[in-house]
């Protein structure tokens, strides 16, 4: 059987880490695409030269032409620019919206059968725009945010409880970062919900609240430490888990930005919800009943995603 083909649009910090993880896991042959000349070629060659040492079988290629992504099975999009001092949210939105138009055209032309994972921020609006510009069916294009947010939550909880990260599960909904809606009822240690762990004296409600706050601000904490960029190891690991679930038809239940068509009372918007990812892409959206506090946080999150999408429609009326 031929190897799968993985195209990474954007060969920056996350793109390079994605290529490294995909090669180490032998998920398929890898094409790194970027508009910067030399960067994708240099990273692809450097990674290929690590192959003999690490013992992986994966072809790696750097590219500046969309023709090289032809026939990709999975595409992960990190192309774009981060917000710089003096730039408004709308400035960033306008720039990255144009990037999503170009990326969508490339995908439509060369890899319309791919499963696409978008990481570019502002995530929920960019994945919405990319679905429009690529014309892909909604179940074949998702945004990566929830796996990262829940991984941060799980890590902080594992530190609090002094147990393995493997035995901590977290359930998050809503937008990325500040808009994240954690459901403490559905987050557990080996199946024991967090409210029960508070009752058992493992932690206090105050400590739990501060862990949730730290999780919401997790991206900013890394930016403040790095000073020259944003997180890339954990975001790349999260997207690889999603790609692997698709390629291996694992049917994992992962929180992703998925297009809602009435689920959770939301229409025609990408919002973070738990989904089943298998060979068909998004095979199921998991809809749970929210309690009052969760519903209020979720509604706030949906409203902020909608305002970003409305801003995209103003910038480019063709998206309306
Ligand atoms: N087409 C292809 N690549 C592009 C384009 C474009 N139109 N515009 C910019 N790029 C490339 C840049 O050349 C750069 O190599 O996208 C890459 C982005 O890489 P980094 O700046 O290192 O950003 P990274 O840390 O990888 O994050 C990428 O993910 O989490 C989000 O907020 C983050 O939106 C950002 C994205």
TrEMBL record:
Substrate binds at residues 83, 89, 121, 152. GO terms for molecular function: L-lactate dehydrogenase (NAD+) activity; L-malate dehydrogenase (NAD+) activity. CDD domains: LDH-like_MDH (cd01339). Residues 5-143 form the Lactate/malate dehydrogenase N-terminal domain. Keywords: NAD, Oxidoreductase, Tricarboxylic acid cycle. One of its GO terms (biological process) is lactate metabolic process. Residues 148-307 form the Lactate/malate dehydrogenase C-terminal domain. It catalyses: (S)-malate + NAD(+) = oxaloacetate + NADH + H(+). Signal peptide: none annotated. NAD(+) binds at residues 10-15, 34, 96, 119-121. It is an enzyme of class 1 (oxidoreductase). Belongs to the LDH/MDH superfamily. MDH type 3 family. Catalyzes the reversible oxidation of malate to oxaloacetate. This is Malate dehydrogenase. It comes from Methylocapsa palsarum. The gene is mdh.
